[in-house]
Amino acid sequence: MMVPFRRKKTNKQFPVKVCTFDSELEFHLEHRATGRYLFELICRTIGLRETWYFGLQFEDSKGNLSWLKMDKKVQDQSVHMTNGSCMFIFLAKFFPENVAEELVQEVTQHLFFLQIKQAILSMDVYCPPEASVLLASYAVQAKYGDYDEAVCKPGMLISENLLPQRVIDQYQMTPQMWEERIKTWYADHRGMSRDEAEMEYLKIAQDLDMFGVNYFPITNKKNTEVWLGVTALGLNIYNKENKLLPVTTFQWNEILHISFDDRKFVVKTNDSKSPKPVIFYSQKLRINKLILDLCVGNHDLYMKRRKPDTMEIQQMKAQAKEEKQRRQVERNKLTREKQLREAAEREKAAMEQRLMQLQEEMRAANEALHRSEEAAELLAEKNRLAEEEAMLLSHKAQEVEQEINRMRMTARKTEEEKMYLERKTQEAELLTARMMEESRKRALEADKLKNELIHARVAEKEAKEKLLNFLSRTSTESILITPSSSPESPMHEMHSYDLLADGDMEQLSLEIEKERVEYLAKSKQVQNQLKELRSEIEQLKIGENQCPLDDINAEQLRLGETKYSTLKKVKSGSTKARVAFFEELEPEESIV
């Protein structure tokens, strides 16, 4: 009996591409793979543990942007195929209330930094011009590290995408002028690591009015168009022309129930003075589903923040503190080594300068010795010439004297010859006297030259002794300078680092509290810097290029209001004012 052949079942796979703001990941999934499997696979690949902030966004077959559902299969969610692959974007779906306290991992901070930076540059999040310059300086610090004039040459930052185009168009400023203002603050961030610069960027960005707000167009019964903003704190209602200042707000702890029926969306609060629910209408049923999904996720995170941390979060925070402490120790060690290297380089430069100075002094001494030797040789030559001249004069004097004797002998011949000889004798005597005087002067000059030669030789001897003393002193100084570099100091510094690493947690808590106080002071300093830059570039503003959000922001600055004061002001308003906008809305017929 023949056994029928059974084909072995094979699970076909399909390609998936996931894009982040700085990388692209590729996977091959089975057809039965769910959204949660793909999401966890991505998180394990990038080392992300704070997964509750993120989601996978994709474009469906109708061209609408949707979030991948975790419990459904990937291929059952109508994902649009691009070049034969399912394309997803890994994005932050929910936002924290306080980035400094809630974001623990560096990879989480980096992903938020990239997404918020892109939102500001693409003008999806409104940012004032002065804040844009400050944020650009932190972005440059995170990318290039400490400011270095040799590396950061003029024109290097012009090609970088650092400022929103709206800000550039508002002012009559050249790219070089913007670059100089960014460099001014960039130089002040010296010593910041990449994660510290990104965290400072997020601290400033979270104070922007549009940070972490998902806007949806809604209408009331009279078809009045407004914006619904879903945030980490609750629901905000905005006028159609103003996305910065909410008309009213409902915090998550005030909301009892949220539901929708087709395009109708109902929000019921726990306010006993206003039992009527808030009702609005969206454009499509798909938008209501997305709003409800965001509301549920933000509400869960809102309640989670107000409960004690789980063991997983406590473990992550402890690991983050240890990692931060370890990196701080390493950073201090590198800073100390850098300081020691710079000090050694400065000492080396000083020693080289001293060596050049000593070589110059030696060269000058050799030149002086050479000149003294040349002077001594010249004096010796003059002395030799004087002696030869004196010898010639003495020979001439002898010849004259012999001539006088001969003339005296011939003077006896005749009287005339005698007179003639007497006259000649007198002349010869005068000539002899002059020559004798000249010979005496030459002898005196020869004696003088001898004395000068003696003094020159004495000076030459003193110069040689001075040079020998100078050379011996120079060798002594070099011997004294050499032992300055002792290997004991680095061992001492390493020992101090070990002590720092073994510090107790109580000291670490005090340091964290100190950092918080320093951050408050630094935040005040940043606000003053923003105010100075705002007043500096105000004269270069182009009025025609101002958008309505710029006017609203200017009015907020004039009134001294911020994102948090506005929310507090709206919350402290009367209860009836919250529902005044919806006073003509139809009541809820039946809500479970």
Automatic annotation (TrEMBL):
Gene Ontology biological process terms from the UniProt entry: animal organ morphogenesis; neuron differentiation; regulation of developmental process
Annotated FERM domain residues: 14-306
Pfam families to which the protein is assigned, alphabetical: ERM_C (PF00769), ERM_helical (PF20492), FERM_C (PF09380), FERM_M (PF00373), FERM_N (PF09379)
Major location (coarse): other
Compartments reported by the entry: Cell junction, Adherens junction; Cell membrane; Cell projection, Microvillus; Cell projection, Rhabdomere
Keywords: Actin-binding, Cell junction, Cell membrane, Cell projection, Coiled coil, Cytoplasm, Cytoskeleton, Membrane
Coiled coil: 313-466, 516-543
GO molecular function, a single term: actin binding
InterPro entries: Band_41_domain, ERM, ERM_C_dom, ERM_FERM_C, ERM_helical, Ez/rad/moesin-like, FERM/acyl-CoA-bd_prot_sf, FERM_2
Superkingdom per UniProt: Eukaryota
One GO CC annotation: cytoskeleton
CDD domains: FERM_B-lobe (cd14473), FERM_C_ERM (cd13194)
Topology within the bilayer: Peripheral membrane protein
Gene3D superfamilies: 1.20.5.450, 1.20.80.10, 6.10.360.10, Phosphatidylinositol 3-kinase Catalytic Subunit, Chain A, domain 1, Pleckstrin-homology domain (PH domain)/Phosphotyrosine-binding domain (PTB)
Positions that bind a 1,2-diacyl-sn-glycero-3-phospho-(1D-myo-inositol): 69-72, 289
Record-linked PANTHER family: MERLIN/MOESIN/EZRIN/RADIXIN (PTHR23281)
Name by which UniProt lists this protein: Moesin/ezrin/radixin homolog 1
